[in-house]
Design a protein that fits this description.
The protein is α+β, with helices and mostly antiparallel strands and about 110 residues long. The protein contains 4 helices and 4 strands.
């Protein structure tokens, strides 16, 4: 087998990997910025009493549910929001655990 062909294939493979990584990086949202927006949409950190995570659901207990911007939360990628008394159950998928961690660290 000719080494020049192997070298060309290796260079092409490396270039494709680099391009793929750049595309993924450009499409990845700034997670800290999104969490700050979520906290604002939930009425600020003083409005958040407690947070829990169950699989893909992020459950948050609030002082005042009426000041929550549900439309804003959905624009952040929530797949669903259920309101029960002073709690919101928000379906965020695999990011739910990270959300709880960051919000707990904010308080």
């Amino acid at each position: 087998m000719n080494w020049t062909y192997l070298l060309q294939y290796a260079i092409i493979a490396v270039a494709l990997i680099i391009i793929s990584l750049v595309i993924v990086k450009l499409n990845h949202k700034n997670f800290n910025l999104e969490i700050n927006k979520l906290v604002q949409f939930l009425g600020g950190k003083d409005n958040i009493l407690d947070t829990e995570v169950n699989m893909s659901r992020f459950k948050v207990t609030l002082k005042d549910v009426s000041i929550v911007d549900k439309e804003g939360i959905q624009k952040l990628g929530a797949k669903g929001i259920v309101e029960i008394d002073n709690q919101l159950k928000i379906i965020f998928g695999p990011d739910a655990r990270a959300l709880k961690k960051y919000i707990s660290e904010m308080k």
